[in-house]
Structures are given as structure tokens and as C-alpha cells.
Amino acid sequence: MFVSHVSKIEKIPMNAPGVSGATRQSLIGPAQGWEGWVMRQFSLSSGGHTPRHTHSWPHINYVLSGEGVLFLDGQEHKVAPGSVAYIPGGAEHQFMNKGDQELTFICIVPEEGDK
């Protein structure tokens, strides 16, 4: 069993090619008893973005706050609080903050996607 609050979980700045103004928090995963999966929270500052990339594993996303764009397989989709997305393995994707406030979203991936 695991109970905590997002404010108590370390925000790790993302420093990789193609990333700007992004932090990541690993909220729940194998260390908390959820074997095989990881729920993460990403925060993008105004103008921030994740890299445009692909990988073999799928993931699901839920936008908590802010406004932005999800680039997915050649199309841009506006996202705002309540937006959901399923991104299959192999799909090129990128999140971009297009608003003035922080864009925050949940991302759930198989454990292999959080290494």
C-alpha cells in the first residue's frame, strides 16, 4: 500500500536533447508496489516541451492543468485540462506548452518506459 501527495515527490529536471523547461515526477511504480507500470507527472513551463520522439512502448496521458499541443504522428492536437490521449508504441509524439501557465499531465507507461 502507498499513500502520499504529489508535493512530497521529487521533481527531476529533464536534461536531454530536444527538451526545454520540463520536469518529471515518478508518482507510483514498482517501488510503491505497482509492478510492471509507472505513473509519472510531467510539468512544462511556458514555452517548454518534451522531445519529438518515438519508442516501442505505449502510454496514456491525462492533462491536469495548462494549455498546449500534443504532436502525434504528424498532427497537432490542442490539449487542456481533462484532455486524454493514448499514444501507441512507435508513434512519433511531443508535448508543447503553448500557454502562459505550466502545462501538467499524467503519463502512464510500462515499467520499461521509465528507465
UniProtKB/TrEMBL annotation:
Lyase found in the keyword field: no
Q: Give the matching SUPFAM superfamilies.
A: RmlC-like cupins
Task: List the Pfam families.
Answer: Cupin_2
For molecular function, the Gene Ontology terms on record are: metal ion binding
InterPro entries per record: Cupin_2, GPI/OXD, RmlC-like_jellyroll, RmlC_Cupin_sf
Alphabetical UniProt keywords? Metal-binding
Residue intervals of the Cupin type-2 domain: 43-109
Q: Does the keyword Amino-acid biosynthesis apply?
A: no
Q: What is this protein called?
A: Cupin
